[in-house]
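Quiz preparation item.
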């Protein structure tokens, strides 16, 4: 790629900072809900509930599309290498800190390729698309987004490969933002900024508080989760631990709420979750469900889910009325 002579630093756009501020506030809300679920304060499984997973994807999409937009305004007139590598170093250090922190808190469930890892790598890769036309950049971005919808393979769930994408089921981890499809979102943001470069849109004002949050979004991202999780974990230590019966009830309630989102049949949901509870108890799978699972264990879990799904869909046999 031809690198143009570096240009002076571009001014910050308040609108972009404010949008990033909204995204970081949304992420704080999501992490509060996730911590409450993970620590047992609520029964709804945030990691599988369709509404919460859609909310999480919207947040990640916001950050990554803004990464593409910011990349254009920072380096579209010529790559300012010193500024770029300084930012990359900060992102890599922050990503490693997140991995270390989540490993300390969650063990094997740690974030080995989360949103900061992704932003650092995708920012570097996106430099190769700076000189392409907006339509070509957008077309490549869409292709990257669509590709994992067409091709998947279980081997891509292995940790050494999971950062690429193409897995049929997400690996068990606190956070993962794989190359496919998420690099495509960065390229769409880059294409959008290219197409509207010089447009008055970018000079629109925004609330100062949101813009301030956006400028400090990385610091907020690094600090908010240790504070939230640490506070809730400390509170949990002083709360009475749930009995086995309460754990069973919480499992069934969470399962039922999640199941009803995809199969709006209350009776089928009851039968599915009752079967799941029996299978988890019989197979002693409680500990397995709370940690990183091997490929064999994931196959076992999927088989259990398939069995219960089949049983929940079977018609209930007619019961003859009692004799008079």
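Solution:
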């Amino acid at each position: 790629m031809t690198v143009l002579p570096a240009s002076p630093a571009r001014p910050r756009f308040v609108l972009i900072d404010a949008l990033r501020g909204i995204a970081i506030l949304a992420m704080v809300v999501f992490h509060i809900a996730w911590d409450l679920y993970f620590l047992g304060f609520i029964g709804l499984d945030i990691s599988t509930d369709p509404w919460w997973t859609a909310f999480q994807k919207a947040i990640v999409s916001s950050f990554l599309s803004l990464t593409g937009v910011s990349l254009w305004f920072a380096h579209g007139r010529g790559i300012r290498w010193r500024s770029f590598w300084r930012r990359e170093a900060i992102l890599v250090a922050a990503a490693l800190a997140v991995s270390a922190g989540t490993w300390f808190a969650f063990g094997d469930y740690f974030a080995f390729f989360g949103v900061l890892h992704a932003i650092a790598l995708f920012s570097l890769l996106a430099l190769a698309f700076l000189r392409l036309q907006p339509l070509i950049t957008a077309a490549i971005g869409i292709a990257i987004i669509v590709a994992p919808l067409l091709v998947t393979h279980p081997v891509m769930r292995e940790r050494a490969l999971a950062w690429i994408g193409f897995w049929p089921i997400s690996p068990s981890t606190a956070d993962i933002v794989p190359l496919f499809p998420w690099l495509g979102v960065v390229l769409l943001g880059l294409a959008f900024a290219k197409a509207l470069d010089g447009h008055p849109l970018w000079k629109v004002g925004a609330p100062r508080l949101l813009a301030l949050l956006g400028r400090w979004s990385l610091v907020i991202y690094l600090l908010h989760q240790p504070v939230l999780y640490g506070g809730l974990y400390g509170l949990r230590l002083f709360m009475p631990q749930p009995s086995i019966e309460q754990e069973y009830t919480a499992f069934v309630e969470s399962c039922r709420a999640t199941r009803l989102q995809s199969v709006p049949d209350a009776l089928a949901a009851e039968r599915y979750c009752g079967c799941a509870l029996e299978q988890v108890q019989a197979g002693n799978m409680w500990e397995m469900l709370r940690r990183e699972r091997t490929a064999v264990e994931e196959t076992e879990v999927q088989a259990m889910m398939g069995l219960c799904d089949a049983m929940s869909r079977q018609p209930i046999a007619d019961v003859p009325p009692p004799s008079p």
